[in-house]
Predict the structure.
Amino acid sequence: MPRLLDVSDDVRAEIGDDEADRLLAGENAPGGYDCTSCRTPGDSAQERTSTVLFVGDETAVLAFAHAGCLPSQVVQVAEDQLQGAVRSVADAPGPAGAAVPAQATAAQAVLGVTSGLLLIAGELHPALVIEPTGPISRPGAAAGGGDDFLPLLIEQGFMPVTGLTEPPRALPGWSVLLAMGRLHAVLQPGTGGAPSQVAWWQAHQPLVVTDGWRAAANKTHTVLVCAAPAGSIGRQPREDLLRDALDKAAADGRLVAAAMPLAGT
């Protein structure tokens, strides 16, 4: 029975025309499924469904989501993270906290990521705060050559922030991936003209966010991503302390930010 599947050009290019056609014909696609994003049941025979392909170096795993939750897309992840990311799709979310840090390796640097709500112009905005545990050098630069974290992000389109009085502008091609109610990755445009997105930051373990954070993200469909050099923010246990640290970093010229669309719920 034909399925109401969305198979993006990126997904089709990865799985091939024959496999894509078999999915659309219903040969290899499930009828009922649990949405990888909202965790509620879906039926590809009755409602529009997206195909989401997680791709590692050696393996790839195809998942399904309500089209209203996630668009059909290719998400590239490190091979050693792929199995853990796939297993996490079936995990139930754990207890929520006000500001929850996680770590992942990107460009040979460990990035700390904290989720929190920021009050800007009278409205609560879901935010991610990213801070490396040490200085970031440009690829190929000699060790000890200084911290290029902010200049590298500015070159990618992040904007310097001197005060959190208004939301930052949107950064085209970037997005924040939330699946099964947990934060999985910050995605950036593929390199070398590749149409698909790649993970700029990928969680070792999917990051739990609060119900309030998720509700605000679903309302605005946008996440504010703030970044500061090592030692600027620290691991703050409460959102008011996190805001104080962000305000100080901004006043010191040590904060950049961008708004990114939310992928998932």
About this structure: Helices lie at 9-15, 17-25, 79-88, 149-156, 211-220, 239-251. The chain has two domains: 5-88, 101-263. The radius of gyration is 19 Å.
